[in-house]
Amino acid sequence: MTSTKTRGKRDNDLYSMDQFIVKMHRSAAGTAWRWRTELIVIGGLAAALYWLSRQVTIIWAAVVLAAAIGIVFAVPWSRRFIIARFWCVLARHRFHRLCWEARLHTRAGRLPVVLWTRPTKVGERLFVWCRAGIAAEDFEQHTGELRAACYARDARVIRNKSWSQLVTIDIIRRDTLAAKHQVSSPLTRLSALYPGVLDGQPSAADLIPAQANLSPMSWPQEPATTQPD
């Protein structure tokens, strides 16, 4: 009986840390870590507004700050940079949400760690650190849910060959190889000129005697121009 009680107490001690981690995931500190990008941006804007209000009035400070934000969104390269970073942050949030809803976490409720998210030419790329109990094959089985959660065209999972706990997830949003304009085939124009060729029927050119084709066609000449006196 004594050994049984000791074993039960020891098991409770092992799982008490897991319960603390699950509570940490839903605590204010865990929420602040997941929303760190938004908090940094809001804190930076609030600090800038406070500093400008010390120089001028609060109204002019808001006007200057709004004008600066408008200029940032008006310049093409800065606008593209902000939009790309926005999609990176959104992909990271949606990935965390998917891992929680699809139970891609440990028994203690610990989610995979997104080490870095960067934009690519076709979307975003997430570098994920898998905790003990999670593997790249788990993400490969949920590629459909992954692309749906990230509002993407497709999702690809690549496992690191040297370190299996490192996984790269590519979020595909656009296809850069897709043709923007449809290129017509020359066969379409030839079939319009010679409708019977593709059907195996003789065309009008085949009915012309061979002697008519002995002399080559004359090369078109440019019209002669006279130099003004």
Which helices and strands, and how do they pair?
Layout: H1 2-25, H2 28-34, H3 36-55, H4 58-74, H5 76-101, E1 113-119, E2 123-129, H6 136-140, H7 143-149, E3 154-159, E4 166-172, H8 186-193
Antiparallel strand pairs: 1-2, 2-4, 3-4
Helix pairs in contact: 3-4
Number of helices: 8
Q: State the CATH topology of the domain at 82-176.
A: Threonyl-tRNA Synthetase, Chain A, domain 2
Gyration radius from CA atoms, angstroms = 33 Å
For the biggest sheet, the summary is:
4 strands, antiparallel
CATH class of the domain at 82-176: Alpha Beta
Describe the structure.
With about 230 residues, the protein is α+β, with helices and mostly antiparallel strands. Among the domains are: about 25-75, no CATH class; about 80-175, Threonyl-tRNA Synthetase, Chain A, domain 2, CATH 3.30.980.40. It is built from eight helices and four strands. It has a four-stranded antiparallel β-sheet with strand order 1-2-4-3. A hairpin with a 6-residue loop joins strand 3 (about 155-160) and strand 4 (about 165-170).
Q: What labels would you give this structure?
A:
229 residues; alpha+beta; Threonyl-tRNA Synthetase, Chain A, domain 2; 4-stranded antiparallel sheet; 8 helices; 12% strand; disordered N terminus
What's the short version?
This protein has 229 residues and is of the alpha+beta class.
